[in-house]
Amino acid sequence: MSSVVPDAEALYLDLLAGVKPLMRPETKLVGITSGGAWLVERLQKDLGLPGAPGIISSAMHRDDFSRRGLSASVQTALPFDVNGADVLLLDDVLYTGRTIRAVLNELFDFGRPASVRLAVLVDRGGRELPVAADFAATTLTLPDTQLLALARANDGAFSLKVEENK
Ligand SMILES: O=P(O)(O)OC[C@H]1O[C@H](OP(=O)(O)OP(=O)(O)O)[C@H](O)[C@@H]1O
Ligand SMILES: O=c1cc[nH]c(=O)[nH]1
């Protein structure tokens, strides 16, 4: 594995810069629970966007639903009309792509967006589905036995930790 865990705050600044070229005038930010929801909360403010960002959960459409069940992160809240919207999805980690597949199903339950893009903090490879990010603040390789987890401190600062994948 990469022995150095990336500095999440530095990656966040790269993400902030990287999403700007993806934005159209009316683009709606939507964060994937839970790490993407933290990111999007801060991006919405730092990009000077009005109102609240969208939050979306993969829970209702997961292909491992029977194992994971519903969690506290089940709520999806999209404070805009999805029909015709340009949507920019945000997540902390992109791995197999299964969360993104489930989130797209969830999004399309609400309407037919004009476009959907994806930006992530970390692309760790390991894709099992044909999913790609339009922007990743970094890419790295981790063994399947490890997980990269985003944490948010009380002061809002982000950090990344490597955990065992049980
Ligand atoms: O590409 P994938 O293999 O689907 O993995 C990536 C997803 O896994 C993590 O979420 P998780 O479902 O663990 O929920 P959490 O963010 O609430 O921990 C992460 O935040 C991504 O959403
Ligand atoms: O490394 C990983 C893989 C999937 N989900 C995570 O949150 N981290």
Percent helix, as a range, is: 10-25%
Instruction: Enumerate how many helices there are, as a single number.
Output: 4
> For the record, what CATH class applies?
Alpha Beta
How would you name the oligomeric state of the polypeptide chains in this document?
Answer: single chain
> Runs with pLDDT <50, length 5+?
none
Number of strands: 7
What small ligands are held by the chains?
1-O-pyrophosphono-5-O-phosphono-alpha-D-ribofuranose, uracil
Count of spatially separate domains = 1
Look at the structure and give the mean pLDDT. 94
Give the biggest sheet.
Answer: 5 strands, parallel
Shape: globular
CATH architecture: 3-Layer(aba) Sandwich
Q: DSSP strand (E) fraction?
A: 25-35%
Protein name: Pyrimidine operon attenuation protein/uracil phosphoribosyltransferase
Domain Phosphoribosyltransferase: 26-134
Keywords: Glycosyltransferase, Transferase
InterPro entries: PRTase-like (IPR029057), PRTase_dom (IPR000836), PyrR_bifunctional (IPR050137)
Structure description:
Strands 2-1-3-4-5 form a 5-stranded parallel β-sheet. It has one domain: 3-Layer(aba) Sandwich (Rossmann fold), CATH 3.40.50.2020. It is globular and about 40 Å long. It has 166 residues and is α/β, with parallel strands linked by helices. The protein contains 4 helices and 7 strands. The model has no long low-confidence stretch (mean pLDDT 94). Helix 2 links the parallel strand 1 and strand 2. 1-O-pyrophosphono-5-O-phosphono-alpha-D-ribofuranose binds next to strand 3 and helix 4.
